[in-house]
Structures are given as structure tokens and as C-alpha cells.
Amino acid sequence: MHRRSSPRLVVYAALAGNIAVAVTKLVAAAITGSAAMFSEAIHSVVDCGNEGLLLYGYHRATRRPDLVHPLGFGRELYFWSFIVALLLFALGAGVSLYQGVRHVIAPEPVEYVLMSYVVLGLSFLFESTSWIVAWRTFAKVRGSLGFWTAFRQSKDPPAFMVLFEDSAALAGLSIAAAGIAAADMLEMPILDGVASILIGLVLAVTAVLLAIESKSLLIGERATPSLVDAICRIAQEQPGVMHANSALTAQLAPDQAMVALSIEFDNALRTEQIEACVAEIERRVQLTHPEVVALFVKPQTVEQFERARERRFGQFALPASPAIARSA
Q: Are residues 215 and 235 both part of a single domain?
């Protein structure tokens, strides 16, 4: 997948849109007394906080490594992304479900219905603008991959979080409008509460999906297989390398990866020649893949590598190097 040219642009766009939407909805909810409108207002307020936390995570992730954190602070972005998912579930979905149940138990007529429609229309316009920015950014990131595959393989949570939040917001606005219209035309105010419950369920499902993916990144996912393939090719082209076996990788941040490369060197090489070979591999990797912030090289025969792989991963195979793939 392609890297984003402006990682924070989509977050800033979403933050600006959500601030405008939140203020509009809060005023309308206070005037109309609509449960669905209040749920939407809470959703927008939570989204504002979420965008702020994502920007804070970006800032914290760029700190320089220290002796206690030698691989840097890149995963702090993943931590705050996970917190965002939890907030969306606890505050966004939780408050919406509570308000919906409360209005189903004790229905109250929606006042100033026309104002509600105007506010929902303006909110839909603001959210649509943010959604378009998020969609175009994610489309560039995913390249030719399918949507679900790109979501699962993404190493940059804000790239998909804002898109999911905006999509949930647009769905919530549609539900709120339908609920208010049904409650008004059918003179059944309980439907306003039902709409609030549905909005809560939409937010809950969205939050669970975001939490699952953010948790996986926080625990530690591998870098993309294409990075392993590219680094193995670089090593294989180096004189003195018999086999570039494969590599263990870990994604430390959207633009940071650690690589442990297994190589079988020519037995005729002396220590200083192996050191020079490793230094040249490091130089070329840094030149072509600056996202690799740490590269470790372990001399191993193919047989030693396979035994080590089986001990650690069992039947699961690591990506094979180009040379091994051709000889297999």
C-alpha cells in the first residue's frame, strides 16, 4: 500500500467539521428536546475529543528514542487509537443507548421539528465534507486493495478511524432524521427513542471494529510482506551472500518498522568482509526504505533458519526470500 502524503490532514479536516457539527447539534438538542438529536450531539462531541487524541498520539509518536525506549515511541499512536475506540464505545454508544432507552420508557414529543431538519441537513453537509477528505485519503493509501483488506492491513489507524467515524456519523444522521420524521408524522414519540438506540448500536459496532484493529497494532503486527521481499532482494544482490533466508519484522508506527534479517554468508568470507557486507546492506536499506528504523542481521544457514522458525512458529511459514522462492 502507498504511504500517505499528509498523515494529519484528514484528522484536522474531521476535527474542524465535528466542532461545527457538535455546536449546531447541541443547540438544536437543547431547543427541540429530541433524544436522537441529543445522541447525535454527544457523538459529535466524542468525535472532537477523539480527533484531538489522535493528533496528540501523532505528536507523542515522533519523540526521539531514549535509553529506556530504544525503539522509540511510535506505538504510542496505536495506544491512543485504542483509547479512541474505547471512548467511542463507552461515551458515544453508551450515552446514545441510555438516552434511547430513557425516551422509549418515557416518550416525549419532539418540538421544533423543522429546526431539527435544518440542523441535520447542515450536519450532513459538514460530515460529508469531512468524509470525502477521509475517503480520498484512504483510497490513496489502499491502492488496488479491496476496502476490507486495506483496513485489516493498514498500519496507520487515523487513516481508517476518521473514515469509519464519519461513516457512522452519516448513518446516525440518517437514522436521526428518519426517527424524528416518523415520530412527528405518526405521532409516536417513542420512535425518537428507538432512533437513538439504533444510533447507539451503529456506534457500538464501529467502535468494536476499530478496537479490534487498534489492539492488533498495539500488541505488535508485522510490517508488510512487500518490505520483507524488498529487503531480501537487496541482501541477495550483495556479493558474499549465499541466501537471504527471510526476516522477522515489527511495525512500530505508521512510518517505522524494525527488521531482523536472516542471512547465510559465504563461508570463505572473513569477519571484516562480513561486517562490510552488512554495512552495505544497511546503507542500501536505509536509502530505499527509510521507514526501517532498526535493522538487525543474523548469520544463519538455511537449515538453522528453518529449525528456528519451526520452534517459534510451528507450521506457520515466514515470507520466503526471492532466492529461496525460485529454488523451491
A: no
Q: How does pLDDT run across 126-161, given as a tens digit for each residue?
A: 889 889 988 888 888 787 888 888 888 888 888 788
CATH number at residue 268: 3.30.70.1350
Residue 112 within any structural domain of the chain: yes
In a domain, 3, yes or no: no
Residues 210 and 280 both lie in one domain: no
Decide which of 195, 219, 243 is a domain's last residue.
219
Q: Which of 219, 248, 277 is the last residue of a domain?
A: 219
185-243: per-residue pLDDT in tens?
888 989 988 998 999 999 899 999 999 999 999 998 999 888 999 999 999 999 999 99
pTM beyond 0.70: yes
Phi-psi region of 257 (alpha: psi -120 to 50; beta: other; left: phi over 0): beta
Distance between CA atoms of 153 and 297, rounded to whole angstroms? 26
